[in-house]
Amino acid sequence: MSAVATLQKSSLTAGRLPRWTPWAVGAGALAVSAGIMSLIGFNLPGWIVIAWLLFVPSMFVAARTVEGHQAGVDRFWTVLVCSAFVLALLPLVSVIVTLLVNGLPGLLDPGFLASTMQYATSQTDQAAAAGEGPVYGGILHALVGSVLVTLAATVISVPIGLFTSIYLVEYSQDGWLSRAITFFVDVMTGIPSIVAGLFGAALLFSLVDPQDSLMGFTAAVALSVLMIPVVVRSTVEMLRVVPNELREASYALGVRKWRTIVQVVIPTAISGIASGVTLAIARVIGETAPILVTAGVAVRLNTNLFNDWMMTLPVFIFRQLQNPTSPTAVGPSIERAWGAALVLVLLVMALNLAARLIARAFAPKQTGR
Amino acid sequence: MSKSIEAIDLDVYYGSFLAVEGVNIRIEPRTVTAFIGPSGCGKTTFLRTMNRMHEVLPNATVKGQLLLDAEDIYASGVDPVRVRSKVGMVFQRPNPFPTMSIRDNVLAGFRLNGIRMGKAQADEITERSLKGANLWNEVKDRLDKPGSGLSGGQQQRLCIARTIAVQPEVILMDEPCSALDPISTLAVEDLIGELKEHYTIVIVTHNMQQASRVSDKTAFFNIAGTGKPGKLIEFDYTDKIFSNPSVQSTEDYITGRFG
């Protein structure tokens, strides 16, 4: 309280806690909490939780006494909101740290990105686990498979999604068909991914020889069932925000509807469309279940989407954990699974970054004055 | 270039709602005609029927005839897109294409229609149109910069340049100065006076001083009440409309008794 008294030089600073108060109260709470913990045996989560439980009321009481009731309530909610933010951040940071710690050894294995599981056998894994050799095997086949399957899904989904959105925004005039499409797109957004996988498998099963129906392309079909609604929703939003004045300006110049859409509407919305598509890709690249039932599993590199089973990163992770290469020495398999998980997350991060860069690169230029 | 416009018993509908009723008007080539009247009286609606732009809205239809030099633009089999390439339009708010440079905005009427041209011809059209819109000196050093970087008044003159680049017969202007400051407004009004030598111009305005400054003839539109159709009340020389109108409601409007 004496610190407050010395600050009362100006009438405006009267009755205000100094800026360092939260830090001081926090340090005090941590100290008291440490004291309590030393009595009952120290552990980190307990220390932090007790410190927080002490910090919230003491901050409230301090602010209420010095600054008044409303200011006290204000401080109380500020503390709660900031705590929630930290709490929400915790799992995110924890995931990244865990991935880096567990994934880096796998990633740094020689040939991890450049080799497949073809020559990694139970014997090599047992040798590696015993410290008598390096960890053989890698994720090349899964990485290539993931990229190919996702690329094929994108090639299928983007034209369908883009044309559907163009129909909804530019042609439908809000008829019953457009309302039906919007409804089903909304329903499809929430479709469980395993259902999409079964749909893809069943579709190709009925179209081609059932013996050959498990292949990369089947997985791409299943993924596009998941991807199309995401693309449609984001693209529709982007097309809707294109000002009608631009369409009218184009019509008034004697430009036909299709050219107006291709030359005016889409270029104006392209940054949003492109980042929406990129996020849709990031959404499906991590799917496991639909690929497991459509493309199966593989240990060799397969670059043909239309023939034979194909591996992808999520299935690789699942497979390495579920069916370790050497059932008696699972260490190398777990190491490879973590490494693949890290690569997958890096891939998704790169896609998100790409979405931002694309959005910025395509955005209409506003400078030039 | 430059054609006359004649409306004969023209009704405009939005669905079953009659928005404008029984317009008969004859607009001579190479004149400026101003449409004035209170909000919602159908000035803009009628203006948009003159290049079939109102059809962009769903369910908008027209009954009657609208002749462009004796050719009915509403005759069956007429392609609205061809009508629009003859009758250009400038909108209320400047709307240059944000993805295009100043040069491409001027050439938009050609580029968007996929018409290819040599660089010399493109430069010639750009310069002629920008000079025609009194914008050349302000932008000639930055033709490759985006059009959206210009000021509001410059953007509106860019839109006019874009309209005259395709050499229409008629230019329709829908409150072209309502989003502009007085200096930009003056620039656009001066430009209208120059464009009159080559084009038939129809301008919708809420500003009666502007109508009296720029137009040769003035048409007064009015509406009997909400839900009733707008009508053309009086059409005469601007001097006469503003000094000695023959209809009482016109006088009431221009003297500020309503509207």
UniProtKB/TrEMBL annotation, chain A:
GO MF: phosphate transmembrane transporter activity
Keyword Membrane: yes
One example of a Gene Ontology biological process annotation: phosphate ion transmembrane transport
SUPFAM superfamilies: MetI-like (SSF161098)
GO-annotated cellular components: plasma membrane
Keyword set includes Transmembrane helix: yes
Main location group: membrane
Gene3D superfamilies given in the database record: MetI-like (1.10.3720.10)
UniProt xrefs under CDD domains: TM_PBP2
InterPro entries: MetI-like (IPR000515), MetI-like_sf (IPR035906), Phosphate_PstA (IPR005672), Phosphate_transprt_permease (IPR051408)
Cellular localization per UniProt: Cell membrane
Similarity remark: Belongs to the binding-protein-dependent transport system permease family. CysTW subfamily.
NCBIfam families: 3a0107s02c
Protein name per Swiss-Prot or TrEMBL: Phosphate transport system permease protein PstA
Organism: Auraticoccus cholistanensis
Taxonomy of the source species: Bacteria, Bacillati, Actinomycetota, Actinomycetes, Propionibacteriales
TrEMBL record, chain B:
SMART domains: AAA
Keywords: ATP-binding, Nucleotide-binding, Translocase, Transport
InterPro entries (alphabetical): AAA+_ATPase, ABC_transporter-like_ATP-bd, ABC_transporter-like_CS, P-loop_NTPase, PstB-like
GO-annotated cellular components: membrane
Record-level GO BP terms: phosphate ion transmembrane transport
Domain named ABC transporter: residues: 5-248
CDD domains (UniProt xref): ABC_PstB_phosphate_transporter (cd03260)
PROSITE patterns membership: ABC_TRANSPORTER_1, ABC_TRANSPORTER_2
Molecular function as annotated in GO: ATP binding; ATP hydrolysis activity; phosphate transmembrane transporter activity
Pfam families, per database record: ABC_tran
Superkingdom, taxonomy of origin: Bacteria
Full protein name: Phosphate ABC transporter ATP-binding protein
